[in-house]
């Protein structure tokens, strides 16, 4: 929850927040002061937060080195990219010997975290728009010379492609995550199949007070943020007809339109208040 708060709000505050304000805001969201302090200690150890006293006021500063990572997370979390049926796929083939087992395990975890599906032990697949991300990951793990990337059209499988995709990505498990997100938050922004889309520049207002919007939005993003990393945005041909993913994507976008700005306003108000 603290990491989610940092990603959502600390840059908007200029990268610094009073300790008292941080404790107050997280307590509003149901996080005890002791839990927040423990979480702060962990994030300090990871280089995300730095103690920074300003005019005798204790606070925390966002490490500038962490900004690029937060920006990458923003792109994945807030910009859902669905693949069309006529777009290419990205396949990654690699071979690492037993002596590099730890690196092999790390590579598998990284590929899963990027949204790749496992075709076989050493062959992974994802929508083509993830090519740049996997290139960066392979270089970062120092295994680029052990891997080959193929950009190809839809693979020809012995069974219907959707059946193969269901195994490669464990779509039943992923669908359950989307369904749970809908169950938790659909009441806050009901979706209607007959409702007209909002104009691009519209700014619908939240029915909640800023404090309530802050709590809802923080919990919403905290639960949502992992989903885009395991759901790479598969095309319709790879998904079952009753796929709940697009409904939850639309719900998250609607909650962002209505709750993000009042949530930011509440954070600014509490952060700027006298200690």
From TrEMBL:
GO terms for biological process: DNA-templated transcription. InterPro entries: PaaX-like_central, PaaX-like_N, PaaX_C, PaaX_trns_reg, WH-like_DNA-bd_sf. Residues 169-268 form the Transcriptional repressor PaaX-like C-terminal domain. It comes from the Bacteria. It holds the Pfam family PaaX. Residues 85-159 form the Transcriptional repressor PaaX-like central Cas2-like domain. Residues 6-62 form the Transcriptional repressor PaaX-like N-terminal domain. This is Phenylacetic acid degradation operon negative regulatory protein PaaX. It comes from Brevibacterium aurantiacum. The lineage of its organism: Bacteria, Bacillati, Actinomycetota, Actinomycetes, Micrococcales.
């Amino acid at each position: 929850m603290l990491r989610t708060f940092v990603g959502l709000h600390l840059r908007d505050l200029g990268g610094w927040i009073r300790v008292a304000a941080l404790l107050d805001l997280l307590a509003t969201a149901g996080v005890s002061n002791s839990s927040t302090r423990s979480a702060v200690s962990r994030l300090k150890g990871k280089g995300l937060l730095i103690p920074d006293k300003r005019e005798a006021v204790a606070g925390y500063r966002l490490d500038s080195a962490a900004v690029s990572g937060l920006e990458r997370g923003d792109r994945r979390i807030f910009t859902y990219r669905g693949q069309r049926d006529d777009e290419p796929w990205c396949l990654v083939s690699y071979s690492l010997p037993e002596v590099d087992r730890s690196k092999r395990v790390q590579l598998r975890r990284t590929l899963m975290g990027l949204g790749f599906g496992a075709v076989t032990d050493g062959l992974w697949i994802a929508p083509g728009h993830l090519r740049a991300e996997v290139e960066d990951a392979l270089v970062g793990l120092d295994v680029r010379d052990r891997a080959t990337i193929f950009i190809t059209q839809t693979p020809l499988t012995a069974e219907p492609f959707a059946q193969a995709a269901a195994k490669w990505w464990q779509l039943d498990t992923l669908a359950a995550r989307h369904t749970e997100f809908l169950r938790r938050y659909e009441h806050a922004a009901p979706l209607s199949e007959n409702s007209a889309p909002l104009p691009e520049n519209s700014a619908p207002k939240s029915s909640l007070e800023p404090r309530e919007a802050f709590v809802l939005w923080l919990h919403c993003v905290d639960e949502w943020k992992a989903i885009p990393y395991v759901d790479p945005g598969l095309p319709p041909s790879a998904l079952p007809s009753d796929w709940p993913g697009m409904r939850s994507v639309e719900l998250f976008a609607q909650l962002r339109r209505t709750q993000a700005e009042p949530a930011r306003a509440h954070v600014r108000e509490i952060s700027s208040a006298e200690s």
